[in-house]
Amino acid sequence: LLGEAEISYAGPNAAARARLAAETVAERMRIRAPGLKLRIDAIGLASVLGDDAGAFARRSNASSEDVRLRFAAQSADRAAVERLLDEVEALYCAGPAGGAGVRRHITPRLASASCLIEREFVQPTVTVFGSEA
Amino acid sequence: MTLRTVKLFEIANARSGDKGNRLNIALVCRDPAHYPALARQVTAEAVAAAFAHRKPSRVVRYDLPRLSAFNFVLDDALEGGVNASLGLDGHGKSLSFLLLDLPVQVE
Questions:
Q1: Which regions of chain B does DSSP assign to beta strands (E)?
Q2: What is the ipTM, given to two decimal places?
Q3: Under an 8 A CB cutoff, do A47 and B88 touch?
Q4: What are the respective helix, strand and coil percentages of chain A, to the nearest 5?
Q5: Rounded CA separation A78/B63 (Å)
């Protein structure tokens, strides 16, 4: 299950408020779901070029007065994923000022991996479904 | 002959995409005259350094001189790839612009 939740900060010190919100949720999740790997992006500062560990974002000198924080985690444990989404939503009342526009959702997904298979184990066939013309 | 420093995006196009957890970036010179300078400077090592935060396990450059182009293949650079990445861009389609941000010296 992929869980994603977003919240926006805009205006003066938006980036600093977003950073504080990110640190708060990360710290609380370390306690509330210790095994859950969390990714946090700041849309408007560094949303796609970065890495899970946040090394790229820490190096970036981008600034913005309109930042959308995005939290993501995946796990087969729905309760752990829900805990993350609840923590983000709780930023409304118990986070940096002006947090707005929370959206949250959980998407089931199946990961795949590329690999090579010995030719002798592969028997390609084609099957056509439906009535013959 | 004077050299000037430009960002790659000023003289080249790039497009990137995925195969599994592998990132693939095509870099194409707009002017074939720039190809030798890019061949010297945009090495696999330079690209590995620019993408170090993605921890690629291997970076290979394939040269296509008749097209004035290069193809870079970065293994294990997509943090799981499109079906497993926690990031927004599991395909790595935005990463062409990380490459195009590199400075190079041209005549």
A1: 4-7, 12-19, 22-29, 58-64, 69-75, 103-106
A2: 0.83
A3: yes
A4: 35, 25, 40
A5: 47
- The pTM of this model reads 0.86
Of A51, A109, A110, the CB nearest to B79: A51
8 Å CB contact between A21 and A126: no
Residue-by-residue pLDDT tens, chain A, 133 positions: 999 999 999 999 999 999 999 999 999 999 999 999 999 999 999 999 999 999 999 888 888 999 999 999 999 999 999 999 999 999 999 999 999 999 999 999 998 888 899 999 999 999 998 876 5
Q: Which of A2, A45, A112 to mutate to test the interface with B (most CBs of B within 10 A)?
A: A112
DSSP 3-state of B55: coil
Is the distance from CB of A69 to CB of A11 less than 8 angstroms? no
Q: Return d(Cα B3, Cα A44) in angstroms, integer.
A: 34
Give me the residues paired with residue A104 across strands.
A5
Cβ atoms within 10 Å of A122's Cβ, excluding its own: 7
Interface residue of B86, B88, B95 to substitute, partner A, most A CBs within 10 Å: B86
Cα–Cα dist B66/B68, whole Å: 6
CA distance A90 to A83: 10
Residue B57 contacts residue B42 (beta carbons within 8 Å): no
